[in-house]
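INTERNAL AUDIT FORM
Audit reference: QA-55
Scope: verify that the stored structure record matches its stored sequence.
Auditor: D.O.
Record contents follow.
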Amino acid sequence: MSASTTGTANESNCPEEQQLRRFAARALAAAEADAVDGHLAECADCQERVAQFTLTLQNATAESQTDGQDRASPRESASVAATEAQGEPGEVDDFELGFLSPSTDSRSLGKIGGYDVQSVVGRGGMGIVLKAFDPSLQRLVAIKVLTPALASNQKARRRFLREARAAAAVNHPNVITIHGVDEQSGMPYLVMEFIGGCTLRERIRAKPRLEMIEILRIAAQIATGLAAAHQQGVVHRDIKPSNIMLEDGIERVKIADFGLARAAMDLSDITSLGQTVGTPSYISPEQVTGGNADERSDLFSLGCVIYAMVTGHSPFRGTVALDVIRKVADYHPKPLAEVDERVPQTLSDLVEKLLEKDPKDRCRSAREVGELLMQRVAEINLAPSDRLPQLTAARPRRRRAMTAGVTASALLACLAVAVWGAKRWQDSALDTAEAPPAETPAAPSTWRQGLITVAQADEADFDSIAEALAAAGPGATIRILDRARYRGPLALEDSRRYQGVTLESTQGAELVAPGSSRPVLSVKATQGVTVRGLRLSASARQFGIYVSGRCDGLLVENCEFSHPSDTKSANLVLDQAAGSAERPLRLKNLKVGGNYLGLAIIGKPGAPVSFVRIEACEFISSEPGTLLTLENAVRNVSIAHNIFSGGVGGIHISLPEAGGGDELAIENNTFFRQTNWIALLETNSDQGRLQVRNNLVLECRTLLIQGEQYEPAVIRWFENNWWELASAADAGQVKLVCAPREPQETLAVLSRDSNSADFLRPADDSPLASGAVGAEVSYVGAVVPAPSPELNTSDFR
């Protein structure tokens, strides 16, 4: 009788007490921990025992931290725990460190090469992992050393060095960087970057129900990192949650522990036939049967990881390893769409395809999978609805994976019709949303073309903006005289009627559209429109202003945009919008708040966002988010004299096609407190006149560069920027993008407090005061009156 049936702790299938204690202490190897985890899902008694052991450990830890000894800070402890992903945590008492040489640092366990070893972090399948300090570059590193028991084995030494060199050849932001490979006292070792954060396994345990956007972002980055490894002929062979690092602060994924990775051409001479290498719950059927494991084996493991992020566990669970292996070979897990209703059908289908038993039936490449997932991320980022839209028609679910005839290319086609472009936004955000109350259009002979006034309390022509628009004709000026709140959504989409119309507020009136998924204000293919002085407050899944089509001479100025804290949308969207050389589209003196996405500029090949000027605006975020993103295709776009403050990313650029960024200039802006002030995401290095110059960069860490090897392009694109070295900035990147200037340790400004009138203002005697670098802060930010008193919905007119 099973424990799952009786719920008692005495059944033979229940783990031993010592095993449960080690599970609570996170001291079990991954395969054993997964087996216990599966048992706990069905045994309430064992759950209670593990909870008691966990509480005991927490109490003991709290007591030990009051004994007055010098202990690691919480952040350092997290970093040490995070590095355990590079070697499974385990017992370290038996580790022999005799190969270390003496160190002059009394706090060090010894030296290896030029590194001071601070502690033993854990062990992997073939080596021990040390936390060490690099005095020459003043940074922490992780060092993996072949275990003493294997060091004397020539075959193991050759395998270790081969794997280290293979991993070192993979240079990608989503793969842990290998700094070097060396040997000391007969002990080969490799030096890796030290990652602060946690493992995906720890994240899943702490938060079993991850948000769908988190799942997709993490999965997409894993696939992108694997694609880079596969391009170098390297197969990981052990992709699992404990080998996936989530870097502290930005949650950039780093694939760790290529201890089982190897060059694809050397498969035959490293592992003997029939030897299973990897973690049973996450390895492919060909690995458990002793067959050849190529790139498609990593894709099967990726499918298992995605499944675990949704459900909290691998799709293949059992009480013993043999049971798990049998399930990997024969069992077809329940489709994710049937397990969790949040899962879009296309993602469920993709995971089913990744979990095909025959490698030939899986997706063709990690790159293809990464593109699918990134497009899904893009769709959700800008989806205005309150739920994740399904991309395929409802159909009967099935337990078996998709047939070989349904390729990943077909999935890509399904996804492509639903992401980033105007058609998707129009269908989901405009056409399928509730229509505004029908207005009886005025005849052209009755259109008003002069001044039209609006006020709710004072005497005016109309008491609602919608009524004023219904009366307006070409060239009319609709002026709002009070500070009241007005209701949208409003649409200026009649190119004949609304050409040259001005909508302005003299007192900072607020415009909202509660209960609607339509943008608060949309402008489509209408020229000469001016929007001035409004406060636009969007809901969580709603755009503030949405602009599409040919809009020569559009001017949006002195406006303020805001979103609630749980927003999943953009404040402003330029979707294949275009001005002209004589009459560009201008965004000027705006204050763009929110915590998710400030401004999205999205073009496509053949329909780029073009002739746009973004000037003297302040983009600000108090929580992780991206302030401005440029996607797919832009032409003649200038971003100048703006402040980008807070958030994870300042400006994100994704231009996958050659020439997608023709005449893109990012000049004289100030970037303040971003993790990545510029991110180049899969951007083709062949761009026409892309320039990033004369920008002031304060308290920012890095450029985020994914995809190609960018250094030559960065040298061409970046010039004369001022980037201070303080706040853990990447010194190599600083030097590269500041040329010909020398990097500055700190850059003096009068105040770094956003509430100060001198926020980011250079001192009069500062070289920055010349205006040659950074934003012109004297006029940045919208001049908008204080919010009007709160009004009830019944107050709308």
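Auditor finding: record pair retrieved intact. Residues 44-64 form the longest helix (21 residues).
Action required: none
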